[in-house]
Design brief:
There is one protein chain. The chain is an alpha/beta fold. It folds into two domains: 239 residues, 3-Layer(aba) Sandwich (Aspartate Aminotransferase, domain 2); 117 residues, Aspartate Aminotransferase, domain 1 (Alpha-Beta Complex), CATH 3.90.1150.10. The protein has 13 helices and twelve strands. Strands 2-8-7-6-5-3-4 form a seven-stranded mixed sheet, with helices on both faces. Strand 3, helix 4 and strand 4 form a beta-alpha-beta unit. Bound molecules: pyridoxal-5'-phosphate (PLP). The site of pyridoxal-5'-phosphate (PLP) has 15 residues, from helix 3.
Length: 385
Amino acid sequence: MCTVPMSSVSKNSYIYADNAATTQLSVVAYASMTSFLVDEYGNPSQPYAFSRPVKRALREARESIASCINADPGEIVFTSGGTESDNWAIKGFALRDDMMREIVTSEIEHHAVLDSCKAMSAIGHRVAVLPVSRTGVIALDALREMSLGDGSLVSCMYANNEIGTIQPIGELCDIAHSKGAIFHTDAVQAVGHVEIDVKAMGVDMLSASAHKFNGPKGIGFLYIKDGTPLAPYANGGAQEMGRRAGTENVASIVAMAVALKENCDAIEANAVRLGRLERLLLDDLAALGVPYRRNGENQLPGLMSLSFAGASGEMLLHRLDLMKIAVSTGSACDGANTRVSHVLKAIGLPEAEAKETVRISLGKHNGEGDVHAIATALGKILLRD
Ligand code: PLP
């Protein structure tokens, strides 16, 4: 028998403030997935009655996700997460025929995008990289000045995972379209946290990942606007409208839809609450006399990239860990990598300052007590040393 965890705030009183790396699975989402693991385990592609509830759950999940981002259900294709969605958008675009394509991206993208572009460049596609401002805003003018042919791709992230800067996606998309290009956005950090309307923005493809919005890990989706030219991700069965063969991860898809709906229904309230928690933390640091610099502008709710002069981010992460507080130095997917973050470098931080940076990312399970504890802990470490 499956049991639902009672709550959820922290494990052994650990303060988890690395929600840009991953989030805690919503208890409601968890409850929604269990029956599809043990009771309703039919293969959704089968025509008999036993599979009907599973097929229906899949359809309803697709409809619910589509309505959260103002898409049509047939434009949502389930994937294994953000990395797969990004790889598919770029490689599926470039490899759909034998033409050499032009791909434009920005220097602050996640490695799922940057490395996909590199792989396409290695086989002859042309890749150009847009610079960013000192606060991490992608240079609109640089894109405007580019001469792009019809059938090129522009891929710019919706919001950055290290510094939180939200991009002018509508404008980037309009410029790309005015040049005949297709526009993809990696919205992995944004979906479920800020209002997303794919029709209003006009994007052709959008990547999302459930574990960033309190859904399960290893599941996500790619929005593909009707008519967008893209090679299938995997060949085989007819699942996912023939675009991604393979039996669907039904339980995780159902939970992803529940988690997204839960977050989207409370998007405004969550953003206001996280904004207040951010303010409390920064006010606490100021009151304690801890000098800091915040990187980025117009950041995602709850995401703070803070540089502390003279203190190593690596040291701060480990000292906070000993005090049962989890934060990150750069991007979490780079946790084992001690190279200086390409994002901090791109916004012009000298290497020494980049190494003095931590990312604190608050989520919906954090409260006032957590932010006071984080500020107090930082004060203890930084003012004593
Ligand atoms: N894109 C961005 C902006 C991310 O922050 C991440 C994960 O940190 C990814 C893509 C990769 O997503 P996933 O962990 O679902 O593969």
